[in-house]
Amino acid sequence: xxxxxxxxxxxxxxxxxxxxxxxxxxxxxxxxxxxxxxxxxxxxxxxxxxxxxxxxxxxxxxxxxxxxxxxxxxxxxxxxxxxxxxxxxxxxxxxxxxxxxxxxxxxxxxxxxxxxxxxxxxxxxxxxxxxxxxxxxxxxxxxxxxxxxxxxxxxxxxxxxxxxxxxxxxxxxxxxxxxxxxxxxxxxxxxxxxxxxxxxxxxxxxxxxxxxxxxxxxxxxxxxxxxxxxxxxxxxxxxxxxxxxxxxxxxxxxxxxxxxxxxxxxxxxxxxxxxxxxxxxxxxxxxxxxxxxxxxxxxxxxxxxxxxxxxxxxxxxxxxxxxxxxxxxxxxxxxxxxxxxxxxxxxxxxxxxxxxxxxxxxxx
Length: 364
Fold this sequence. Notes:
There is one protein chain. The protein is mainly beta. It has one helix at 29-65; strands at 77-82, 85-89, 99-106, 109-115, 120-123, 131-140, 152-155, 173-179, 182-187, 196-203, 206-211, 217-220, 228-237, 249-252, 266-273, 276-282, 292-297, 300-306, 316-322, 330-337, 351-354.
């Protein structure tokens, strides 16, 4: 028995036992991999659907914008230039029409395809004393083709055997400006033993207009404001013999409203590589395609760069020259464009380059 004097009894010391927290749930590794793969697949699917929707919208917009054909060319004329050729001309397109090429038809047969900056052509290989009808269609860069123009007809004259004598030059020429972009030209009739069949108007070395044998004057359109022109006229007979130039006549067009159009090729670059020089530029904004450029090297005209029908660049133009001069030769290069009025435009910026060493020829 316990002694009361010993005081209250102490509770026996026992360790306190707390409940353990529940064990954390663990996701199996395979399930985690499957979940991540599913998330990636859903993200990829959403991205693909969005891309397809954007592509479909862009395709629809492009299709809607590219199905309208340009208007039919206007002002078509046809004039026999000889017993076997007819000169066909028409009006230039408006810049907003987006014309990239012209298709010339004789009856229903395509006879020529021309870039948009060309609005006249000689159709050759014809039969003497034959009537021909012509139409022209315009085509844009998307391939849309206009309705045919109004038809124009001409009859080739009889052939003259062994006609090798050229007509005499027109004895006199006169001209005056009608406005900033047009001029009136007149001349005295030329003579020929077999008869004159056409008169050709030249600006420098470029023929820019042709009229029939009975004409003694014409109106020239598409000129540049505030520009001095030197025009000449040549007579042509049925055997395609051309006379010497008639007397030149100078015509200065007055300044037009606003600034004169910039006629220089823009953003011109020149880069030398092994055995070559690559030129690149943007055509001047003349309102028509520009297919002919004159290249100057070290201040001298070197070559004329021409782009054929259907090959005129829509944006940047590029031309590659093969060079044989030794490496280290320094060139300064610039170019200018042939304008619709037959003149050369302003020069591009001049670039200075050093020719590179050509690649060695591998030994056999």
